[in-house]
Amino acid sequence: MELEEAIKQAITEAPARKFSESVDLAINLHNIDLTIPGNRVDVEVILPHGLGKPTKVAVFAAGETALRAKSAGADRILSGDDIKELGTDKRAARKLADEYKFFIAETQFMPIIGKSLGSILGKRGKMPTPLPPTQDITPQVQRLKNMIRIRSRDRPTFHLTVGNRNMNTKELAENIDAVLTKLEQTLKDGRHNLKSVYVKTTMGPSIRVI
After folding, report:
1. Range 76-91 burial, b when 16+ CB lie within 10 A, else e
2. How far is residue 166 CA from its own chain's centroid?
3. What's the rounded Cα separation, in Å, for the pair 95 and 112?
4. Residue 1 confidence (pLDDT)
5. pLDDT at site 201
6. Which of 21, 61, 62, 128 could bridge 103 with an S-S bond, Cβ 3.0-4.6 Å?
7. Which stretches in the chain have pLDDT values below 70?
8. For the chain, which residues make up each domain, given as ranges?
């Protein structure tokens, strides 16, 4: 089925909800041994049109970098003292890790983040992207706002969000195309490792696209 047609069908056949449903992909791999870590998918993709809703980014920074991060649209700025407090409050640290999709940190904070929050952020695949002292944080924040991470772990079936049903079909199709292109570039045998791909809304029917 043509991609845009499949998206239209998935949205049309999904019952109306009182919330804005996400549009998701269900991806099934085959002919690849995912017990071998090197074969697993763990990549980042910039979606041309974002997710259709804000992606929350938190930044560990101080001084001028903190001000720039806030101006660039970072959703939360955390200081060195915040890191220490979170290190002693695991509940708050877990809440932080679940609430924010991506993290950036000035390199000066990386050692204490690893010590205090590494077990929580690392488990979720959310360790911060290090920011060198001379690098402008603005493009980093803006990039992460449109980025998703694709992770298969050791299972052949996994899911990811590529937008929401309020976006137009063309935007969703271009987002999905970006994901499929990245997967083909990443998988050992490219498209031959894609057994099937389905598109669906959060609670709607699955429509096959591959």
Report:
1. bbbeeebbeebbeeee
2. 19
3. 19
4. 64
5. 96
6. 128
7. 1
8. 3-52+147-208, 57-144
**Tokens 């697993």 label which residue?**
40
Residue 52 and residue 163 in contact, taking contact as beta carbons nearer than 8 Å: yes
Among candidates 78, 125, 65, which has minimal Cα distance to 97? Answer: 125
CA distances to 29, 106, 146, 171, 175 from 163, in Å: 22, 30, 10, 9, 8
Question: What is the rounded CA–CA span in Å between residue 173 and residue 6?
Answer: 9
For the structural domain made of 57-144, what CATH number should be given? 3.40.50.790
In this structure, are residues 22 and 101 in contact, taking their beta carbons and an 8 Å threshold? Answer: no
3-class SS string, 62-75: CHHHHHHHHHHCCC
Q: Compute CA distances 54 → 19, 101, 192, whole Å.
A: 15, 10, 34
CATH architecture of the domain formed by 3-52+147-208: 2-Layer Sandwich (3.30)
Whole-angstrom Cα distance, residue 47 to residue 25? 14
* The predicted structure's pLDDT at residue 53: 85
Residue 147 has phi, psi (to 5 degrees) of: -105, 145
Report d(CA 27, CA 15) in Å as an integer. 23
